[in-house]
Amino acid sequence: MIVVDASALIAFFLREEGWSELAGHMVRTMSLDYAVKEFYNAVWKAVSIKKKISSEEALRCISLFKKYLDKNMQLIREEEYLDRALEIAFKEGITVYDALYISLAIHQNKPILTLNKKQREVSRKYGVAALP
Known about the structure:
The chain is built from 7 helices and 5 strands; from the N terminus they run βααβααβααβαβ. It has 132 residues and is of the alpha/beta class. A 5-stranded parallel beta sheet has the order 3-2-1-4-5, with helices on both faces. It is globular. The two termini are 14 Å apart.
């Protein structure tokens, strides 16, 4: 099992560039509960702002995501990880949002899957294996 952040979830489900490289990592994952909100917002943005997909395609994407949540992903409440995340964010100059995934990975002793280069670098600095 690995920690997956919203950037990887969004790229995988919206089939953004490099999405197929993520597939092998997406079998059993865990993430923070707010990743669901980030995902829904990204789908909204893909329809409303970027005009990349239709609303019908968005609804199919959401349906697939819900099935994935039921079978392949464990959602974790972020509250337990906020204090450590804030420490990391202050020290490393990253957002609390990104630091939360690192905090979860540290606490769970799991690798992290992210497309955020800075988040990967900081993760490795804290002894977390960062994929891809």
